[in-house]
Automatic annotation (TrEMBL):
Protein name: Predicted protein
Biased composition (Low complexity): 518-537, 658-677, 753-769
Membrane-spanning residues: 88-108, 120-141, 161-191, 212-241, 253-283, 350-374, 386-407
Organism: Naegleria gruberi
Molecular function GO terms recorded: DNA-binding transcription factor activity, RNA polymerase II-specific; zinc ion binding
Biological classification of the source: Eukaryota, Discoba, Heterolobosea, Tetramitia, Eutetramitia
Biased composition (Polar residues): 502-517
Keywords, ordered alphabetically: Membrane, Transmembrane, Transmembrane helix
Domain of life: Eukaryota
Length: 1168
């Protein structure tokens, strides 16, 4: 490389450098220098006996316009060649770095990068750019130096202009090289702010201390940077003077050393401060994770000893190895998921902090080495290439480490975005909320979204706002990043259609509709201001996509509490299907907005639709393109298939949606009989028109019955006139009792099984009618093996189907000859009807089962009789009759002794006999162990039963060491250790249950339910364990508790939640209690939204989940838990205070055009 450069030198000198030296600037510099030293032209005859002072000129710099130097004044050619090779090498490295950075930025072009990451990349790019500029100047300087050396060795003299230009280029190399030091102070200052702010967020320092430190850093950085630049200019000037023989090497050496000491003190000060702040952050994180990491190492061996000494049979039992009881030396050590979660959620900030800190330390080290070498390079010029090498190496290491640390994060974030987009696309394609519903665990996040680690590294991410996984409703889910962007708005052309449909006259409608549109735009802008975090810690989609994206019958779907939108799939020609899809997407997005996802109170949003009363002429059966209707008592908003809101006002909390498939071939025939399900019925009544008093006063009326708000404030009677059209044609509105009954009876359709490529259920009118009255035999059998059996049926499907096909349920039981099969058949039927919500039919079936058992109760050798008693125990548990359960259990225990003697070999039992023995073990050792009713169990009570659950599934004793750990008092040091053990036990139990279900006749859909149920238990267990820690209020632990509670709430929105076991109500209580405590804390602030999490929405969802449980299980409805009652009371207070705090409508300056529009519509309806 050096030889190639030397070959190019003559051309370069002729074309570039010599013209440069002949420039006006170089000639002027030479003239000024010659004039300055004109008196020293004869100084060659200086007496050697005289003492030369440090600043005395040894030789005149110029003689007759030529440099007065010899060839020894220049460095050897090989030294400059090596320096040039070093510069070219690092230029290539920096070019590759820029190319890699460009490719990286291209890949993440669709990702909005936040402030701090932007600053980080700008600093790195600028740092490299300064060094690259220095390298280019250095190449020019080295080339000129080589040329001067070669020319001087031939005996020629260099012109003064060339000599001045050469020394100026050398001074510039010194200036740019040392400028990296000044820029390094800026970089250190940036990291110091991040580390110190993070330390304050974690509680390591107080806010007052942070304020003092920040001001100290601001002042010190400003002073150090200015002082450093002055020292750099001084060093560059002395370099030029010394190379021009104007100043001796002694004063130049002094200036170099002084500059080095000043910079050394500055770098050491900033470096120490940065290290201290970083250590504070790292120490706090390590304290949190130390116990967990120790637990994972401690229990790897215990897990291997316990579980690896045998293998799992298809039924989940463990067969011991005959060779040895010791753990296998080659047994693989399995990491529990807590290890992965801690590494991802807590150790990731640690890695980022530690990596950046080490990059800074390495950069400082190499820069100090370069500065030290530079100080001695004035005397030993041969080591100059080494000086340049270390200087460039420090910059390159810093820039490369920055790139390598951030690249995986951006890639992971991009993957998370793709998952969110896929989920959103699936939601849009499926015309429903199953895959696109608001997921507490989806967004972002994304994820959440873990909120704790985002808050800990908040300033590293550069966000002043943290997205929660409810954005998380969101964020699946979460994602926290993209879910808010799902809030699509009605296009302008649609708002124009709204205006045209509201009234034949266009007066006033424009401002009303634009008001709604502006409100939506404002809401959208608020959503987009926050952006998203670059750190995908605990991406909700990645951690629980199965929770919210699981396939399930849409009739399982439980709509969220709070105001909602009708979801009625239109039918008709293929040309209208696309518009239907777009409409559904927009209705979905509007629903999300009304449920608090946008941070707007539901009633505030619904007021935007307060344009007119319902027009009864718009009916679903009027044409082939179904109207999509939002029903709320007497107030209805009607939306046609083309996404146009025609008329209406939604001011309730009712959701109606249809299960009719728009793709079915006979959809046109079924358009008039769409099966709808009312999820929640509003108790308030509203009039379709304003009251007489408000109409006469031209005031805004809220149309509330029996009295509007305006009349209540005045203390006058409120009277509503009946619409003439309503007198002619009364709307077919069913009473709440009938609606509630239909809601209960149509929550599950066993034949509507989840299908991968099916987005809606196909339910004919006849099937729907049959389902609302009773369960057919095929439906009941499907439901039993899909859900009710819990993966452990007591008889084969074929046997049950054969009996059901021949058995007449309506025959007189006294005429039966065999009562054994009827007894278990009716007990199974009672369970299915109970969980299906048909409580009256379930009671009748249970009575028939008991009547059959009364004839065969003494047949102790009958497996079917024992199975019937087992099913009745479960039914009585669900019904809340605890004493009956214990009575039947005593009978069943007696049957067990007769059916399964002590010497009975478990391997000789059939699958159903093992299942019955498992049910008995479950009742005796888990449910009735302390005579507490199932609804009164707490999470702590269930955790105490972990040893019994372990023994039941693993068929071996629970390790004594684990029992000691579970009984240990929870502290800040061992809370993660205990949680790690609990998680490992639950994961092992889940694996065995999955194996059991896979080997049985149970529906494979129950595998999905198992995943959700165990996730529900894991989140609840985490809340229970971490809540007992003395450090419960710390940022990390409280954040993990909040995240677990949000995840539980998200699971209650899963389509499978209505069939979750009754035992899980304890975990729901734990999550609701966390949300309730948080909401009470936030209530005094005037807003229940914190960190982008709407706790009012979460509480409403928790209450909806309680209501679902109470509708399924009488045990939960007879005596609601204290948390549920407190939750109802709190929401009632919130709703009451919201209404009472609203400004009187008679005094509020409402839009006059809006009011007149309502009056016009009222008159129009009255005239009709």
């Amino acid at each position: 490389m050096s030889s190639a450069l030397l070959t190019m030198l003559p051309w370069v000198m002729d074309k570039i450098f010599i013209p440069l030296t002949q420039s006006k600037f170089a000639q002027s510099s030479a003239f000024i220098t010659n004039a300055m030293f004109a008196d020293f032209q004869d100084s060659n005859s200086i007496d050697d006996s005289n003492t030369v002072t440090p600043f005395q000129i040894v030789n005149p710099p110029f003689v007759d316009g030529y440099a007065n130097v010899t060839s020894s004044h220049y460095l050897p050619v090989w030294v400059n060649s090596l320096s040039m090779a070093n510069s070219v090498f690092y230029l290539i490295c920096f070019a590759i770095y820029y190319v890699a950075l460009g490719i990286f930025l291209y890949k993440i072009r669709n990702i909005h990068i936040k402030r701090n990451p932007k600053i980080m990349f700008i600093l790195a790019i600028t740092f490299v750019a300064i060094q690259s500029t220095n390298l280019v100047i250095r190449i020019v300087y080295d080339a000129m130096h080589i040329y001067a050396k070669v020319v001087s060795e031939t005996g020629q003299q260099m012109s003064s202009s060339f000599f001045i230009a050469l020394n100026l280029m050398g001074a510039l190399t010194i200036f740019f090289m040392f400028s990296d030091f000044a820029f390094l102070f800026v970089v250190l200052f940036f990291f110091q702010k991040i580390f110190w702010t993070t330390a304050q967020l974690m509680g390591a320092i107080s806010k007052k201390t942070l304020f003092i430190i920040q001001w100290t850093l601001n002042i010190s950085t400003l002073v150090f940077t200015i002082l450093c630049e002055l020292m750099i200019c001084l060093v560059s000037a002395f370099f030029f003077l010394q190379k021009s023989d104007m100043v001796g090497k002694t004063p130049t050496m002094g200036v170099y050393i002084g500059c080095f000491l000043v910079i050394l003190v500055m770098l050491l000060f900033d470096g120490i401060v940065t290290v201290i702040s970083g250590v504070l952050v790292i120490t706090t994180i390590k304290k949190t994770t130390r116990a967990v990491m120790a637990t994972s190492q401690k229990y790897h061996k215990t897990t291997t000893n316990t579980l690896s000494t045998g293998h799992m049979t298809p039924r989940g039992s463990i067969e011991s190895e005959k060779s040895t009881n010791l753990p296998s030396a080659h047994a693989p050590v399995e990491r529990t998921s807590i290890d992965r979660k801690i590494e991802q959620r807590i150790q990731s900030p640690f890695k980022v902090t530690f990596g950046l800190l080490m990059a800074l330390v390495a950069c400082i080290l190499f820069q100090l080495v370069a500065a030290g070498i530079a100080s001695g390079a004035t005397e030993i010029d041969i080591i100059k290439p080494l000086w340049y090498f270390f200087n460039c190496l420090g910059v390159l290491i810093f820039a490369v480490i920055i790139l390598f640390l951030f690249y995986p994060m951006f890639v992971n974030t991009e993957v998370a975005f793709k998952e969110i987009e896929i989920s959103k696309t699936n939601a849009q394609k499926s015309h429903g909320f199953n895959n696109g519903s608001i997921s507490q665990r989806s967004t972002g996040h994304t994820g959440g979204v873990s909120m704790v680690e985002k808050e800990l590294m908040l300033h590293v991410a550069g966000s002043s706002h943290i997205e929660s996984p409810s954005t998380i409703t969101p964020t699946t889910e979460t994602s926290p990043m993209e879910s808010n962007k799902l809030l699509l708005q009605l296009p302008t052309n649609q708002t124009e259609k709204i205006e045209s449909e509201l009234s034949p006259s266009q007066n006033g409608t424009s401002s009303a509709s634009s008001f709604m549109y502006q409100q939506q735009n404002t809401q959208q802008q608020q959503q987009e201001q926050h952006g998203f975090s670059l750190f995908p810690f605990g991406s909700p989609l990645s951690s629980s996509s199965s929770a919210m994206n699981s396939t399930a019958p849409s009739s399982y779907f439980q709509a969220e509490s709070g105001p909602a939108i009708a979801f009625n799939h239109g039918v008709g020609s293929s040309s209208t299907q696309n518009s239907n899809s777009e409409m559904d997407i927009q209705l979905h997005n509007m629903m999300m907005m009304m449920q608090g996802g946008g941070g707007m109170m539901p009633s505030t949003f619904l007021e935007l639709f307060n344009f007119a009363a319902i027009n009864p002429s718009l009916d679903n059966s009027s044409n082939n393109n179904l109207m999509h209707t939002v029903v709320g008592g007497a107030n209805t908003a009607i939306v046609d298939s083309n996404s146009d809101i025609l008329l209406g006002k939604t001011n309730s909390e009712t959701i109606i949606f249809s299960n009719t498939s728009p793709n079915s071939s006979d959809s046109s025939n079924n358009s008039k009989s769409n099966s709808t399900t009312v999820v929640e019925q509003s108790t308030e009544e509203f009039s379709p028109i304003a009251c007489d008093h408000c109409r006469s006063q031209h005031r805004k009326c809220d149309k509330r019955k029996p009295s509007c708000y305006s009349c209540q404030q005045r203390g006058i009677n409120c009277h509503y006139r009946e619409s003439k059209r309503n007198l002619k044609k009364k709307p077919n509105i069913q009473p709440p009792s009938i609606v509630q009954k239909k809601r209960t009876e149509t929550q599950y359709e066993p034949y509507s099984k989840p299908k991968t490529n099916t987005t809606t259920n196909k339910t004919s009118p006849s099937e729907s009618t049959a389902l609302t009255s009773s369960l057919s035999k095929p439906n009941m059998i499907d439901f039993y093996y899909d859900v009710v059996a819990g993966g452990y049926p007591l008889l084969s499907r074929q046997e049950l189907e054969n009996f059901a096909g021949k058995f007449d349920e309506n025959q007189d039981l006294n005429t039966l000859v065999d009562f054994e099969m009827p007894s278990i058949y009716f007990s199974i039927k009672a369970l299915c009807e109970c969980q299906y919500g048909l409580h009256e039919q379930a009671e009748k079936s249970a009575e028939k089962a008991k009547k059959c058992l009364s004839r065969v109760f003494d047949n102790f050798s009958s497996f079917m009789v024992a199975g019937a008693y087992c099913k009745l125990i479960v039914y009585e548990l669900w019904s809340g009759r605890f004493e009956n359960c214990k009575f039947y259990l005593q009978i069943l225990t007696f049957f067990e002794k007769k059916l399964f003697p002590q010497d009975c070999d478990i391997d000789s039992m059939t699958e159903y006999q093992q299942n019955l023995q498992g049910w008995i073990f479950y009742f005796d050792r888990i449910i009735f162990i302390d005579n507490r009713e199932l609804k009164d169990l707490t999470v702590e009570d269930i955790l105490k039963r972990l040893p019994a659950i372990f023994e039941f599934l693993h068929r071996k004793p629970f390790p004594a060491e684990w029992i000691n750990i579970l009984n240990t008092e929870i502290t800040a040091e061992n809370c993660f250790e205990i949680w790690s053990l609990v998680e490992m036990i639950l994961n092992q139990s889940k694996a065995i249950e999955r194996s059991n279900i896979s080997a049985s006749e149970s529906s494979k859909f129950y595998l999905e339910i198992i995943e959700l149920v165990y996730q529900f238990i894991l989140d609840g267990a985490r809340i229970s364990i971490l809540s007992k820690s003395p450090q419960r209020d710390s940022v990390v632990i409280s954040g993990m508790i909040d995240q677990s509670a949000i995840q539980i709430t998200a699971l209650t929105e899963n389509p499978w939640f209505p069939v979750f076991p009754l035992e899980l109500i304890a975990f729901l209580n734990a999550a609701a209690k966390v949300h309730l405590e948080k909401a009470k804390t936030l209530r005094h602030t005037g807003s229940l939204i914190h960190n982008n999490t709407d706790y009012l929405t979460l509480l409403r969802k928790d209450l909806r989940a309680f209501n679902v449980m109470r509708s399924k299980y009488k045990a939960a409805s007879a005596q609601p838990s204290e948390v549920c009652l407190e939750l109802e009371k709190f929401l009632h207070e919130i709703d009451t205070s919201f209404v009472s705090s609203a400004p009187p409508m008679l005094d509020s300056p409402h839009n006059d055009l809006h009011t007149r529009l309502e009056e016009f519509l009222d008159e129009f309806l009255l005239d009709q």
